[in-house]
Amino acid sequence: VLCLTVPTDSRWASAAIANLDAVLVDHAHCEMKAASNAMSLATRPPIYPDVARALASLAEEELDHFRRVIDVLEARGVTLGPPEVDEYAARLLKTAQKSARKTPSGSLAERLIVGALIEARSCERFKLLEAALRAAGDPLADFYRDLLASEARHYTTFVDLATRVTGDEAWVKGRVAELAEQEGVIVKELGVRATIHG
Ligand SMILES: [Fe+2]
Ligand SMILES: [Fe+2]
Fold this sequence. Notes:
The protein has 198 residues and is an all-alpha fold. The protein contains seven helices and no strands. The two termini are 17 Å apart.
């Protein structure tokens, strides 16, 4: 899916379905983190009005997703606890920073590319979840079908913004491919967990 180099372990979807409440809780936090990440990138220098606007819109969409997951949790009688450390995202960011471009626009672009990879992985996982829920006759399948379409769009938005910021399409493509390799290693190492990414 999209730029990913390693597919999710085939056992992940059944583990997720078996722990659906935990996955939904993790999912709610992922949406909020996606919103706050987009907001913080919108004001990270160098600030380009068009980039800031696009990130603000993306943040709004992620907040809307957060609200929708909260609705699902409430309907299921599940309470949302405090967020746990997202090991996947933390490791991905750390890996990216090791070899990141040091210029301000370069480091903003790195963050945007990390965002793109996270969106790509979410999109892949939502697709697997949709199929598993559909097979189980669970109406939440439609919910995930809706969300995976936005995550695919967000992937493209992040890649486009990284290109806009650096003006260097070839570099962005190369960097996405490079980080996608590293992302694959992280996904393999984290193994099968009842979380959206880990
Ligand atoms: Fe989202
Ligand atoms: Fe997203």
